[in-house]
């Protein structure tokens, strides 16, 4: 099912600027469940996660609808998608919290259904909501988990003190978690996930709702874990985060994987660069669009900002001409920048179904809702 | 409520948080259950309000019924107390069992349960531990009711041994009963609906039983 519809989906995007290459190739690699033995780049290394035609429906909703995923051991793998795309459902199935409706999922070769205990002994999970006990203190939470993981009473206390110190929570150790700030709570949550270093760590939107400083602290922890050999499966809505951290990314939308590859592959898939222009007078935007389209010979997109335009360009040489053209047409420009396409653009292009502009609006609205609601999604 | 801790972690210290020690052996079912029981006790320690139901309610019921209806139902308050106290004892503890289900229902909502479920432990330990913690609450409630009864003039026929074995029987009964609410706690959507359902079942049953009135006088 996936095999037929998704590549067609991907092909739509191909149009603007030669996408055929990397993304489609990687997709077929990820889909190799159908042709065993060919896992593309991860052929020789062991797989941390391997799913074949994984399906989970909730009533009418197809949360996960035939996902083939091959995540190599080591490094960070990003699962990227809008709200309700099926990311959390994927993680819950892989962490043995949900039974798949169809298909198979294996973690380090152990089936998540039949061999759940072996999976549980290797994974650890940090959900969208801090999964710590709000009534207990930070210290008690960590001791509780250390005891449950098999440490003796004395070892558990020692490990807890060590962790509280490292995560800057020593001062707050004897306070109930419900008095913690969002950043502290998230740090405690991550500490709770790594009381014992897991072989595979699921991080479900670990930085949602955090300020930039707390976010970079979380990134630091993730990098430290990876350096120690842990494989991380990260879901995120922040493309910057995926770009910064992930070695490979799968873009998931409507329960299916629509693209898979390295961040660089994905970015390359939509052209070599993006020109962003902002005009002083929004009334002149249409005029600017026509001028740019003519000179650049590429589709020009109107952004949701009423004064901004962007164009994906293959030939950077024409940019100087574009600038001259705009000034000759007496269109005042406040911003003129050439950049690599951001993962945002890749993301929107890949998860776009109908009209590009409405989707842009919807995505930015979702983003705000998400921030406001603290990020509750399926 | 959002006070930041003074010491912010830096990269170096965060890296030191990653343990390079080997994983300790898996805990036994008993050890895991006791750890969860410890968690239940910690919750009582931090939220002592939840002990209201095991302290205030039995006292209130015992005083109310003894002095309001005692004279009318049994001729004198002291005669009624002899009959009522064991019943109140049973009723109090039976009602507390509902909270076992409610606590679990809360846990499931909080996400902390997800973490417990992804741990490589004997899975029923979460429930057994919670029930063990509740057994402590039942004991507290029983002690309070009996102590108050003795002050008011209750004189048990069976003596100390009789009372202790009655309490022990009650604990076993409640422990068994709380499994029902626990099961419901997983099925029901919210703690409120669980509370309402359990009350709907327990309330009529308690009043129809011989706690308050001798069934022989019923139609």
TrEMBL record, chain A:
Gene3D superfamilies: P-loop containing nucleotide triphosphate hydrolases. Residues 1-12, 354-371 have a biased composition (Basic and acidic residues). Its main location: membrane. Residues 49-279 form the ABC transporter domain. It comes from the Archaea. It is a peripheral membrane protein. GO terms for biological process: daunorubicin transport; doxorubicin transport. It comes from Natronococcus amylolyticus DSM 10524. NCBIfam families: drrA. GO terms for cellular component: plasma membrane. Belongs to the ABC transporter superfamily. Drug exporter-1 (DrugE1) (TC 3.A.1.105) family. This is ABC transporter ATPase.
From TrEMBL, chain B:
Residues 1-29 are annotated as: Disordered. The keyword DNA-binding does not apply. It comes from the Archaea. Its main location: membrane. Keywords: Membrane, Transmembrane, Transmembrane helix. Residues 36-219 form the ABC-2 type transporter transmembrane domain. It is a multi-pass membrane protein. GO terms for molecular function: ABC-type transporter activity. The chain crosses the membrane at residues 51-72, 84-104, 125-154, 160-181, 193-213. It is found in: Membrane. GO terms for cellular component: ATP-binding cassette (ABC) transporter complex. PANTHER family: NODULATION PROTEIN J. This is ABC transporter. It comes from Natronococcus amylolyticus DSM 10524.
